[in-house]
Design goal:
Layout (H helix, E strand, L loop, with lengths): L1 H6 L1 H7 L3 E9 L7 E9 L2 E5 L12 E6 L2 H8 L10 E3 L4 H18 L8 H24 L3 H9 L3 E7 L2 E11 L2 E6 L9 E5 L2 H8 L5 H6 L3 E4 L2 H18 L1
Parallel strand pairs: 1-4, 6-9
Antiparallel strand pairs: 1-2, 2-3, 4-5, 6-7, 7-8, 9-10
Helix pairs in contact: 5-6, 5-7, 5-9
């Protein structure tokens, strides 16, 4: 959400006058507070993202929330299964402007991540690759922190290493994950402190989307120069497997 609002000029302009807390939540009797949630504190260009934290409205604070009836309903909704059983309760609709721009950003995100073929224009391709890179780095790190058996076992055995994704010619189109002895941290942009242990480097945006959208074969992309693996090939296969794991969960 934060990346989309920052990179889409029409949305960025609309959010400049927004001062509001936005929350997406789902009810769950087993959750410590009866629900799981992530919220954003938005003050114009400043976004503070609080993952897995429930927010409550403070007096006079503008507050907009999409509250789903269950974890299953929320997951189904964001996978495109929209209907009476999955629609969230919408709170804060009286803040019409804030609610409207939030929904516009959500719809833009759903449209981009729901595409099955690459968009036609360069700007959308650029943004979509960034979203995928951020999703993959954060997704793999989160799976490790949540104790996914395969990913956490890999992280536990790992010395201090950085794995990265990037597109040649696009310095801002990159992301990485740093792994060490069971710990992991996702990052956006290029890792500056040292050369990454392994980088999955794409020739251009179309080459990146071919792999990220599961259109092209990875081995064929390597053979034709669309994908360059800076590092040992076996590590490319390993990180590629975790990429597919995150992709399968997201779809």
């Amino acid at each position: 959400m934060k990346t989309i609002v920052a990179d889409v000029p029409s949305l960025n302009k609309k959010f400049k006058k927004v001062h509001c807390i936005y929350q997406v939540s789902c009810l769950d009797p087993e959750a410590p507070e009866g629900k799981w949630a992530t919220h954003f504190m938005v003050n114009g260009d400043e976004w503070l993202v609080h993952a897995n934290k429930v927010a409550y409205r403070v007096k006079k604070q503008k507050f907009v929330e999409l509250e789903f009836k269950s974890v299953e309903a929320m997951n189904a909704f964001f996978k495109g299964k929209i209907g009476p059983a999955t629609l969230p309760k919408m709170k804060g609709v009286n803040f019409a402007y804030e609610f409207g721009v939030f929904m516009a950003a959500l719809l833009k995100m759903a449209n981009l991540l729901g595409l099955e073929t690459p968009p036609a224009d360069e700007e959308s391709k650029h943004l979509l690759v960034k979203l995928y890179f951020y999703l993959l780095s954060s997704g793999i790190s989160t799976l490790n922190k949540m104790g996914h058996p395969e990913v956490h076992d890999w992280a536990l055995k790992s010395p201090d290493r950085v794995y990265a994704w990037k597109v040649d010619g696009y310095d801002d189109c990159s992301a990485y994950i740093r792994v060490k002895a069971g710990n992991s941290k996702a990052g956006r942009g290029e890792y500056k402190r040292a050369m990454p242990f392994f980088t999955m480097r794409f020739k251009d945006l179309d080459s990146a989307l071919g792999i990220l959208m599961s259109i092209d074969d990875m081995l064929e992309s390597v053979r034709t120069g669309k994908l360059i693996m800076d590092g040992a090939p076996e590590f490319g296969a390993q990180i590629g497997a975790y990429m597919m794991l995150v992709g399968a969960l997201a779809k």
